[in-house]
Amino acid sequence: xxxxxxxxxxxxxxxxxxxxxxxxxxxxxVDSSTLTDTGFQFYLNEVDLVTVDxxxxxxxxxxxxxxxxxxxxxxxxxxxxxxxxxxxxxxxxDHVVDAGSVAYMVCQVCDLKGGLNDxxxxxxxxxxxxxxxxxLIYRQMIDESVDYQYMTGSAMFALFRKADDLxxxxxxxxxxxxxxxDEGDRDxxxxxxxxxxxxxxxxxxxxxx
Amino acid sequence: xxQSVRISVxxxxxxxxxxxxxxxxxxxxxxxxxTTVPSSQGVQIAQxxxxxxxxxxxxxxxxxxxxxxxxxxxxxxxxxxxQPTSTAGGEPxxxxxxxxxxxxxxxxxxxxxTSAGDSNWKVIKVGDRLGSGVKILVPxxxxxxxxxxxxxxxxxxxxxPGTQVAIEDLALRNGVxxxxxxxxxxxxxxxxxxxxxxxxxxxxxxxxxxLSKRGTDIYTVEYQNGRFRMSLSDQGRxxxxxxxxxxxxxxxxxxxxSRFVTRGQFVTQEMFKAIDHVRFDRNINVNDLIGLTNNExxxxxxxxxxxxxxxxxxxxxNILGSPNMQTPDGGTGLMNGVTTVGIGRATPRREGxxxxxQTLLPIRSPLGSDNTxxxxxxxxxxxxAHGESGQCRGARRMMKRRM
Lengths: 209, 403
Fold this sequence. Notes:
The complex is a heterodimer. Chain A is an all-alpha fold. Chain A has helices at 5-18, 37-46, 52-64, 72-81, 99-109, 116-120, 128-138, 153-169. The N and C termini of chain A lie far apart (77 Å). Helices cover 15% and strands 38% of the residues of chain B. The interface between A and B is large, with 63 and 82 residues.
């Protein structure tokens, strides 16, 4: 039985709703679940698309400095309990994560409240990810994009770096503040202060081993 | 007769094609042993295969890209990368670890970054001496500060969190302290206090561009997600040169662009001039027409759309008469999402786009305007005006102009 026009109009939104996510079409050269937290960070920079499981792990590393979870369900549970992610999204672990979901999680981890619309409407879940993405775009933490855009690895790592920098500046974790700045590394005359090298042992370069 | 002629022509062409094909195959076979590309800095890369936009070829610029990709496993997989021989003909120098935050790691330059944490990687401690051939990983919540040894010239360097960098060459040659860093991702800050007879020759290469300094402190190069940003601090001294390499889809070199940066300035992959960056380095709320400055409002009112965000001289116009939005960052997608709202056709000027002036808006008012184009927004009736003799000369209207 052929569908009528009004039936097609009613079914059209379903097409968009089921086309929002899917598994990653390519297979990375390494299995991210076997990597250490440090290796995982630089894996993010090289992978073409980021899955939900990998994004969840990245958020836990961003929030806690490490991910002690054993599997996806454990990560998901932690993020749900802390309000970093929402169960209403119903994200699947092997699906490619969208920019809106990542933006929302980054806003939660970085304690970003967002604008008026985000506060008034976003809390209800309506447009929460879209408003979160707009907030990050405003802060120049992510490029102009839409919330349903797939998250590439290099974009994810760039956002990851900026979010960590923001957390450090907001004092959300303790940092020694090792840096090279005009304020801290110049004398009164404006000359660069170069400290004497700390006496060390023999060279640690691989060529000497 | 005609049939036989066609057959003979076909046979002749087939033989020519076969011969030319054999010749090409022979050339390929001859070229295969030459896939190992020794770079000028002593790093040898064999069969570097690059999976993304930039493809290094057997060209001098290709070797620059290879060096940048040494630190980036995401953009290249360097097979059979040999150990550097950078200290050949020179006295080795080292970066001594001065300060550490978190757990940065180091290993050989050929070690895969994703394997961080296994036995090939060692946690960096204060006092470690890192020379050429070392790959350094600085994860988030970590940082690293290094000084050069011997300290002639005095040099200090800092790696920010989320940095992957390789020291591919570090040696003293012919009275010059040669330093070559390949930045895969992240940010490096450095400063050299030029003193004495030993000169510093330092370059930091990324897959998208190379920084060359000219007696400089404190400069920063940051590379991530295909974009770079090179800057000199507000109190910085000297000059840095940003060199951008443009590659085609087949890896061929399309050209280079260079830009000098002085203190307080920066340059990105768009290679704008600093004065152009200043105009764009701020948020513009495009929904807030009241909040627009004269420059921005006039640009929109002048049927230019948001073409003003394009680089100077590249305000090309598409078939619909709106400014093209593909050129500003060389197709890296930086401008994705920016809506083009040009109403009419923008006029490309062959001599270049010089922007718009910071002047008053020539808006016409129903009340008229003065000869400078300023809009008369309100008139009010004043008290009686008095002549020299003190007599009332009647009321007059005073114009209040909006400046």
